[in-house]
Amino acid sequence: MMKSYSLRVDGTQVVLQPGEAPVPAPGPGQVLVKMQAAGLNRGEFIPGGLVKGGSSKPAGIEGAGEIVALGAEVATLHIGDRVMGRCAGAFSEFALMDVREAMPVPPGLPMTDAAAVPLTFLVVHDMLVLQGRLRAGEWLLITGVSSGVGVAALQAAKAMGARVIGTSGSADKLAQLAPLGLDVGIQTRAPDFAAKVMEAAGGHGADLVVNSVGGTVFAECIRCMAFEGRLATVGYVDHTLKAEIDIQALHVKRLTLFGVSNKLRNADQRAAGLPAFKADLLPAIADGRIRPLVDRVFPFDELPAAQARMESGAHVGKIVVAIGTGG
Q1: Where are the strands (E) in the chain, listed by range?
Q2: pLDDT in tens, 51-90
Q3: Where would a tag sit more exposed on the chain, N or C end, judged by fewer CB atoms within 10 A?
């Protein structure tokens, strides 16, 4: 048996439940990983999101550890390999990982940092590269730039040569992100930043907008966009799921609106983006040009406290739990 957390919906809250579960056995194309660290993701803790009312599911969706068993048809990985990847049940002492999702942990990267890479940076790659088509010299606007996805998007965009504008309600958080390359910080939680974005971008507007806040700023994001701009919707921490769309702006400026989510993708669809990610962003993580920003590391048995910090909005970057030993 192993220590493990599960999630269930209790009214308007997603609640973590500690317990024990059998150690799973890897099937074909899977590896069993002794988990050493796992990252928290806000989307997992939104009622009606990844957890449905009245149901319970293993908690945790990304992490890092050491392979301790191989399933059939696994030829590219070996027992003892340090890997990071998306996986169900990451908040457990052991978890199964699809071999296609398992990425080598670069030498010198601590496991607590590695655990902050897989889901967040794969989302960012999808958002900035695969769908967003961000190019060097373009302007990127990130609403809620201090979130885990926001910081990773900032880091990846700077590595790609883009210029980045970020919004946050906290001047202190914006100041913490300046050393990571944030070109322009706008302190606000209100939909009132379009004029400042246009001014910062010399009247051009944002070529790509990452909206991690939600419906309350959607219309303002549209107002910020450049000709042939792209708008990525990646979250809605404001719980506002509807917004007005300026159809004329969409039409005249030839805008592209797209969503960034794995919720309805199957395993093959999720794995399809891994080769491009390994080519485009993983080298920058391996050589230190991108270093995941970890806000705080909590012990495994303090996972509920880690959840509370995330939901308080006090963090900058990713929150991680340390599950086992190992660097």
Answers
A1: 2-10, 13-21, 30-39, 56-58, 62-70, 82-86, 94-98, 103-104, 139-143, 163-168, 184-187, 206-211, 225-233, 256-259, 294-299, 318-322
A2: 455 567 899 999 999 999 999 999 999 999 999 999 999 9
A3: N
And the tokens for 316?
A: 């900058």
Phi/psi for 35 (5° steps) reads -70, 135
Sort 107 into a burial class: Cβ within 10 Å, 0-12 / 13-18 / 19+. Answer: exposed
pLDDT tens-digit series, residues 184-239: 999 999 999 999 999 999 999 999 999 999 999 999 999 999 999 999 999 999 99
Predicted confidence band of residue 45 (pLDDT cuts 50, 70, 90)? confident
The DSSP bridge partners found for residue 39 are 320
Spacing of C-alpha 241 from chain mean position: 20
Tell me, what's the pLDDT at 327?
Answer: 46
Q: How many Å apart are CA 30 and CA 20, to the nearest integer?
A: 22
Q: Give helix then strand counts, H and E, for the chain.
A: 11, 16
Give the chain's domains with CATH numbers.
2-117+292-322 (3.90.180.10), 121-259 (3.90.180.10)
